[in-house]
Amino acid sequence: MTEKEKEQKALEIYQQLMHALVDIEDKESVIEIVNTLIDENGLSSPGGEKETALSTKRKRLEDKKEVPTCPRCGCSEVLRNGSAHGKSRFRCKGCGSFFGLSSGRVIEGSSLSAKRWDTFIEGMLSGDSLPLLSEKCGIALSTAHNWRMKLFSQVENSIEGRILKGVIQEDEFYLSASFKGNWKGPLNLGIEKDYSDVQPDYIKYGFRTHAHKRGSQDRKRGVSRDKICIATAIDDGRNVIGKPIGRGNVSSDGLEHAFSSRFDEQAILVT
To answer: Could you give the 3-state DSSP secondary structure of residue 197?
Structure first.
């Protein structure tokens, strides 16, 4: 059976179903039961993301009730401004920008469901690898990588304006500098390129003159210029901020760069 014949058959079945529902009062409940039977018999889509008519209607009602704040300026005075692709749109009275319910969120611009995002974030918190996340969520490996970068960016933006108060504890930790995949990065994106004259970043930025073999430990003991210093701070409310501040030992300039205007004036700093 060709794709065109399949579509024609599906259309005929759909028309028969709609004709059978003409004289039924509670159509939504019947459709809900039909979808449940489909799921129980293993006939649903692999992603399990089929939306029933009832759940779709509920989402639309929730969208009508929910009025978000502006993701650009934080103003709560917003006006409804129609819809786009079945989703409510808003206009901010403060800055005049237009946005939707997903604007400024991690799912912004994604055509996949929030359920897949929940599965992805849960896997990220569990330490799953990209191939495993790709398999769990039913997405391509490149999509899993892009989602991870998008999630990291969202977390970074969410703590950008955070102010720590009360008693603040500050400390640093160190990670080995990694340039894995950096040399032939364009090749991962399918871009053909001549790498004979490309200088790896570990040479360009003065880390070392040779590639670091996989699985081997750092040659230098303790804190060295091959380590990246990351400054962290936490307050009584368990609010945390962290930022890489440079190579090797911690410096006062690096700490000022990381925590400038991030502590309350009445806070007590413990190092």
So the answer is: coil
